[in-house]
Design a protein that fits this description.
Blueprint lengths: L4 H5 L15 H10 L12 H11 L5 E4 L6 E4 L16 E6 L5 H8 L4 E3 L2 E3 L3 E5 L4 H11 L5 E5 L3 H11 L5 E5 L4 H11 L2 E4 L4 H13 L5 E4 L5 H15 L12 E4 H4 L4 H13 L4 E4 L4 H14 L12 E5 L7 E5 L3 H14 L3 E5 L7 H6 L5 H12 L7 E4 L7 H7 L4 E4 L7 H10 L4
Parallel strand pairs: 3-6, 3-12, 6-7, 7-8, 8-9, 9-10, 10-11, 11-12, 14-15, 14-16, 16-17
Antiparallel strand pairs: 1-2, 4-5, 13-15
C-alpha cells in the first residue's frame, strides 16, 4: 500500500535543510508521496529509512533493464492499465525465435532485413529468443551464432547446466535467462545471480507462476520477467492481463509487478497470420516481450505501426523541432518550403522531398504539434506566424526568396505576399505525394 506524506515525514531527518530542493521536510515528504520527487533526493536519510521508503514508494511494476549499449532496453515500469489514463512507459519489444536445428545466422539475417525508420523511430526486431531443444553443445553453439548481432538474447532454457554453458558465451550482453520454474528455480536463481542477468519465470498455471515468483523473491532475487505463455491463447491472455491488473490495482501485489514474455512461437507455431493477429492483441494487453517465428515486412508494418501509436504519450504532441532542414544538399540558394511541426506531417513531406532528388530547404515553424488544417483552424499556423519565423530565422541564412506553402492553406498566399515583401509565394498541392511531380514541373517551367 502506498505511503502517505505523513508516514514518509516521520522517517525523514526533520532538519529542514532545504538541500533536497524543498523548503521543509514535510513539503519534501508530500512531493515524494505524490511521486513528484525521488526519496533519494534527501541526503540525510538513514540507510534503513531509505531502504524502507524506496521499497514502499517504488512503482508497483519494476523497471527491468536488459541488453547493453545501443541494444539496452527498459521493460515494465508501467503505472496505468489504460494508455489514456496517463501513458504507457516501456514499449513492447519483439523477439525472433531460433532453435539449434535451424540455420541461425540465415534466419537472423532474413529478419534483420526489416530495419527502417518511421516518424523518427527505428523499427526492427530488438531481441532473439534461442530455444533449447535438448542438446547442450548444439544450444551453446546456436547462442554463440546469435550473439554479437546488436540484439538482446533470450535464452529459453530450463536445463541448468546447458544454461550455464550458454551464459558463458553471452553474459556480457546482459541476456534474459528464461528458464526458472517450480522444479528448478533455486538452481536457476544461482545461475542468474552468478551471471548478473534477468531471470525469466514460468509456471504450469497462473497460481504456480505466482508461487514460484514469490519463492524466488524470498531468495532475494527480484531481477525478473514473467513468462505468461499458457497452453492456449485464452489462458495466455488471462495470465497476462491478470498479472498486470494485480500489480496495478489500488492495493498492488508486487509479486506480480514484473514485465511479461508472451511466446507466440509456442501458441501458434508455424501460423504466421495467427501470430501477427495475436501479437497485435498482446501489444495492447500487455506483453512486454512478444516472441514470433520470424520478422518480415508483412509482419512488421502493422505491428510496429500499432506499437508506435499505443506507446506514444497521449499528453504530448508528436513534434519536431522548429528550424531549417536542408534536404538533398539544399543550400542558401535552394527553394524554401514550409509546413507544420507535427511529426507525421514532417516525415511524410520530407520523405517526398527526398524522393524528388531536388535540393531544397524545409522550414518548420512552431504550430503546436498539430496537422496543417488543425493548426490553421486553431490559429497556430497563420500568415503572421509564418512571416515572423521567415523574417527572424530564414532571411538571415537563406538567399532564395521563393516560398512554397501547403496547398491546404492556400488562403494565406495573399497575406504572406503582403507581409513578406520580395518573396514569391507558391502554393503546393494538397497532398504530399504530389510534391515530386510538382517540383519537377516547377523546374521544367523555369520557376526554380
Amino acid at each position: 500500500m502506498a505511503l502517505k506524506g505523513l508516514d514518509i515525514f516521520k522517517m525523514t531527518p526533520k532538519t529542514n535543510c532545504k538541500e533536497c530542493g524543498s523548503p521543509t521536510c514535510m513539503a519534501f515528504a508530500m512531493k515524494v508521496a505524490q511521486g513528484a520527487v525521488d526519496i533519494s533526493k534527501c541526503p540525510h536519510m538513514s540507510e534503513d529509512a531509505l531502504a524502507t521508503l524506496s521499497e514502499a514508494t517504488a512503482p508497483p511494476m519494476k523497471t527491468i533493464k536488459v541488453g547493453t549499449g545501443d541494444a539496452e532496453y527498459s521493460l515494465g515500469g508501467e503505472t496505468v492499465l489504460a494508455r489514456h489514463e496517463k501513458t504507457f512507459v516501456s514499449k513492447t519489444r519483439f523477439a525472433v525465435n531460433v532453435t539449434p536445428d535451424m540455420d541461425v545466422e540465415a534466419a537472423l539475417a532474413e529478419s534483420s532485413k526489416v530495419d527502417y525508420d518511421r516518424i523518427g523511430e527505428r523499427m526492427h526486431a530488438e531481441m532473439v529468443y534461442v530455444e533449447y531443444t535438448g542438446d547442450a553443445a548444439a544450444y551453446t553453439e546456436a547462442v554463440k551464432k546469435a550473439s554479437g548481432k546488436g540484439k538482446v538474447l533470450i535464452l529459453g532454457c530450463k536445463d541448468v547446466e546447458a544454461a550455464k554453458a550458454a551464459l558463458e558465451v553471452c553474459k556480457a550482453e546482459k541476456p534474459i535467462l528464461n528458464g526458472a520454474d517450480a522444479s528448478n528455480y533455486a538452481e536457476m536463481v544461482e545461475v542468474a545471480k552468478a551471471a548478473d542477468v534477468v531471470l525469466g519465470v514460468s509456471g504450469a498455471s497462473l497460481d504456480e507462476l505466482y508461487d514460484t515468483t514469490a519463492a524466488i523473491e524470498k531468495l532475494g532475487y527480484k531481477n525478473l520477467v514473467l513468462d505468461t505463455t499458457g497452453a492456449t491463447v485464452k489462458e495466455t491472455f488471462a495470465n497476462t492481463v491478470q498479472i498486470r491488473r494485480a500489480c496495478l490495482a489500488k492495493n498492488p501485489d508486487r509479486t506480480c509487478g514484473y514485465p511479461s514474455i508472451v511466446n507466440l512461437s509456442k501458441l501458434a507455431a508455424g501460423d504466421e497470420n495467427m501470430q501477427i493477429a495475436l501479437a497485435s492483441v498482446f501489444v495492447l494487453k500487455y506483453g512486454s516481450i512478444v516472441v514470433l517465428d520470424k520478422m518480415d515486412y508483412a509482419t512488421a508494418l502493422p505491428l510496429f505501426g500499432l506499437r508506435q501509436n499505443v506507446f506514444t504519450d497521449p499528453q504530448k504532441p508528436m513534434k519536431v523541432e522548429p528550424g531549417i532542414y536542408p534536404i538533398n544538399g539544399g543550400d542558401e540558394n535552394s527553394l524554401v518550403l514550409t509546413t507544420v511541426d507535427f511529426a507525421l506531417t514532417y516525415f511524410v513531406v520530407s520523405g517526398e522531398l527526398e524522393r524528388s532528388g531536388m535540393p531544397c530547404n524545409l522550414v518548420i515553424s512552431d504550430a503546436g504539434g498539430l496537422s496543417v488544417l488543425t493548426a490553421w483552424a486553431a490559429g497556430k499556423l497563420s500568415s503572421t506566424s509564418i512571416a515572423t519565423f521567415i523574417q527572424e530565422n530564414v532571411e538571415p541564412k537563406i538567399k532564395c526568396r521563393k516560398l512554397v506553402i501547403p496547398g491546404k492553406v492556400a488562403v494565406l498566399k495573399g497575406d504572406l505576399e503582403a507581409k513578406l515583401p520580395g518573396w514569391q509565394i507558391i502554393v503546393a498541392p494538397n497532398e504530399a505525394v504530389q510534391l515530386v511531380k510538382f517540383l519537377k514541373d516547377l523546374k521544367a517551367n523555369g520557376e526554380i
